Amino acid sequence: MGYGSELAGLHSINADAAAFVVRAILFSALGILALVGFILVRRAVRRQYFDRLAGAEFYVRQHWDEILSGEIPADEWRVVRSDAEAIITMTLDLLDAARGEEGAKLLAFLRRTGLLDRMAVDARRLHGWQREAALVRLGRTRAPEAVPILVGALDDPRAHTQLAAVRGLARTGLATAAEAMLERVVTGELKLEATSLLNALMICTRNNPRILMPYLYVAEGHVREILARVMAETASLALGDDLLVLAYDLSDEVRASVARALGHAEFGFAFAALDMLATDHKWFVRLRAITSLGQFRETRALPTLLRGVCDRSRHVRQRAAEALAQMPNPVAVLREVLDTRDAYALQAMIAEMDRIGVYDKVVEELQAAGHLAGGADARCLLQALESGAEELNALMRIAPAQKAAKLV
Question: What's the whole-number mean pLDDT along residues 249-265?
Answer without folding.
Answer: 91
